[in-house]
UniProtKB/TrEMBL annotation:
This is Ribosomal RNA small subunit methyltransferase G. InterPro entries: rRNA_ssu_MeTfrase_G (IPR003682), SAM-dependent_MTases_sf (IPR029063). It is found in: Cytoplasm. Its EC number is 2.1.1.-. It comes from Pseudonocardia oroxyli. The gene is rsmG. The lineage of its organism: Bacteria, Bacillati, Actinomycetota, Actinomycetes, Pseudonocardiales. HAMAP family: 16SrRNA_methyltr_G.
Amino acid sequence: MEHPPPPAAQKVFGDRLELAARYVDHLATSGVERGLIGPREADRLWDRHVLNCAVVAELVPDSAKVVDVGSGAGLPGIPLCLARPDLRIVLVEPLARRVEWLEEIIADLGLSLTVERGRAEENAIRRRWEGADVVTARAVAPLARLAGWSLPLLRTGGRMLAVKGASAPQEIERDAAEVRRLGGGTPVIELCGTGIVDPPSTVVSVERQARLAGRPRKKRST
């Protein structure tokens, strides 16, 4: 095993740690070769990528339906699935070469995941996957744009969980009004994985409100 797991990984993945380690090996080899992961990331895959994403599970309800937008190399969707096999997860990714890689890795690991080629803003994707409990995203788009893509996929009261970095407070200050206009609640910063990853993962959480912007209520028939 070229990239042995840190001690914290056992706590996060439990009896699925071996599968998580195989996923990391895939990221470090074919993931780099096929351009899904930068070559400089190979030595910090566990803390910076896999554990950083898996700890978001702290915010996800039991047996939730999760849509992972712009999944790329399966982050955060695959780590979430490995940490929480109770979740029903679909990975939405527009690029064919990434979809092909994701399908290969999921088959090798024997995971119950769906891969959907497309963009979250496409009507066909929205019709197929709307009503989700949670929409996740990592390094996909600025907060307001991401909310415009993600909120329509959520049920009322569902949450968008965007894994962000140190700039999260600035993004919220800039985009909070637009997020509310799009039908989201006030964005809130959540820290996940305290004591597991250092620094903890910064997640911006936005609840979908009862009605989305641009979708007027239907008039009652008389």
